[in-house]
Structure formats: C-alpha cells, structure tokens
Amino acid sequence: MQNKIQNKSEASVVKIPKSPRAPTLDDVARNAGLSSMTVSRALNTPQLVRPATLEKVMQAVRATGYIPNALAGGLASRRSKLIAVVVPQINNSMFVDTIQALSDELAIRGYHILLCVTGYSEETEAELVATLLSRRPDGVVLTGIHHTHELKKIILNAAIPVIEIWDLTPTPLDMLVGFSHEKVGQATGEYLIKKGYRRPGLLWTDDRRAAQRKQGLCDIFFRHGVTHLAQVNVPLPASLSLGRSGLAELFAMAEFDVIVCSSDTLAQGAIMQAESQGMRVPKDIAVMGFGDLDFAASNRPSITTVSVDRSGMGQRAAALLADRIENIERDASIIDLGFHLIERDSA
C-alpha cells in the first residue's frame, strides 16, 4: 500500500499595517466637543474667540497632535509667516551672528526662516530662490548684491519684499543693509601705510566681497608707490590650517613686513605659522585680519582687524523686512552700517 503524502502549499498573507492617519480639524472638533467651524475660527482668528473656547481648542490640539496647515490658513491674509534666507556658507563665522540675530528678530515679529546655502554660486542661488518661492515666503533675504539675470527676473515677478545684506550699492533690488568692502580695504591700506609698512603679503580667499576689499587695499598701496604685492589665494571656507599653510607659501616667495589677511581666521593661522618659524609678531612681521571674530581680542597677540556689526546687520535687516511686509513705512530702504578699524597688538 502506497502512502501518498500531499504537501499543500498555502498562500501566506501578510497584512501591512496602514500608515497612521494624520489628525484632522474634525478630530480636534470631536475631541473638544465643538463644531469644526468654531475650531477653525479659534485657530485662524483667536482674537475673535472667547478665552475659554480657545483654551478648549488648544487642549484638543495637544491631545490629538493636530498640526494646523499654516499655508492654507494664511491664504486669506496672503501671509505664510516664512522668510527665505539665502547665505553662501553656514560654517563661516562671519555669517553666523548675522543669521542668528536675523532669526531672533524675525521670531519676535512672528516669522520663521527657511535657510539655504549657495556655496558662493550665483547659479545655485537662482535655483534655490526659485524653489523657496514655491513655498510662498513673505520675504527673501539675499547675501550680497551680485545675482544672475535669472534670479533678478524671478524676484521681480514674485513681487515680494527682498532685502540684500553684507554689501552696499545705491541700486539694490529692493532694500539693503550692509557696508562698503572697498572702503574697508582702503581704510586698511591707509592704516598700514601710516604705520610704515611697505612690503605687504596678501593671504586671501577667492570670493567677490574679499576681492572688493583687496582692490581697495591695493589702490592705497599703489597710490603710495607700493606696486608689488605678493599674494597667496586659499580656498573657501577660510580656516586656521589654511592660514598656516598659506603663510608658509608666502614665506617661500619673499620677505614681508606685514601679512594682510582676508579674515581673522586666516590671520590667527598666520600668527601661529610665523611663530612656529621663529618670528615674533609684530616685531618681526605684522599681521592684519578682518571681521573682529570672537577670538580676535583674546588671541595672543591680539589681532588688529576691522569690525562690522554683524548682529546689528541681522537685526536691522529683519526689522526693515518685517516692516515692509506689514506695510509699516520706513524713512530709508538702504542702511549703511559702516565699520571701524580696531588697532591691537598684531599690527
């Protein structure tokens, strides 16, 4: 007798759990024991709702985890409460204080920032701004005044407030808070000439604003008969190690009595390299920076530099932009922050 063993293959059914449904306005209404219309009114125009009702709605919002649709809620007022902020870097100490002050001041006015980084590329800036505008921000903050034709066209077509920072021009796209980089270079040159320095070496990053400062600096030196300025360019972002290697490269070219750096970070590295090679700053060689970063005054020797009110720039840009959005009249749409040169031990 032959035993037949039959293996029955049964289909295995795996139930995939459904993704949890996001709580809706109706869920909040049921939790609060109110109508959806009342809940909507409480969330969009809380000043028109009794405090007890508003508190009941907010308790229901917390209980359900409901997230109001800020864009949909802002359609009637055409306000998203978002500000697009475009900067070249966030790992550059020069911009950190400005971004923080900008964010803090805008938060006081009820706005939040969308931050994007361009990496010093004007083409990337244009692409990012086009993407950001799809979020319907109430305003845009741009770093610098040099933009592609495409970006200018996008901004004009968007017809929203725009403020440019960190530069100066009499013809901004809309509003501006900044200072003249060329004048910074000129003031630096005049100071160094007055101190008697005639053999400068330049340690510089390759970006447009630094180039403007260098042009102002060179103009002053040329005017006083100093026509040869040896230079080493270093990539962005500036760093202490680039300051050290850059100065070592300069020392291989010639002898100098002052090293002018496009940032305090490079200046700090240059000081370290000079001392590692047995040179005393400023007795054997002077070093000049830019930015007055947090460490500049505490460095040994302390760094002679140019100070710009970075936090003030963010605060004033935020106030100017928020006022424009809210139709508050201002006397001026261009603010020149100026700068001041700080003489310390290094030069």
TrEMBL record:
Residues 1-25 are annotated as: Disordered. The keyword DNA-binding applies. GO terms for molecular function: DNA-binding transcription factor activity; transcription cis-regulatory region binding. Keywords: DNA-binding, Transcription, Transcription regulation. PANTHER family: LACI-RELATED TRANSCRIPTIONAL REPRESSOR (PTHR30146), TRANSCRIPTIONAL REGULATOR (PTHR30146:SF33). Pfam families: LacI, Peripla_BP_1. The keyword Transcription regulation applies. It comes from Escherichia fergusonii (strain ATCC 35469 / DSM 13698 / CCUG 18766 / IAM 14443 / JCM 21226 / LMG 7866 / NBRC 102419 / NCTC 12128 / CDC 0568-73). PROSITE patterns: HTH_LACI_2 (PS50932). Residues 1-10 have a biased composition (Polar residues). Residues 23-77 form the HTH lacI-type domain. This is LacI family transcriptional regulator.
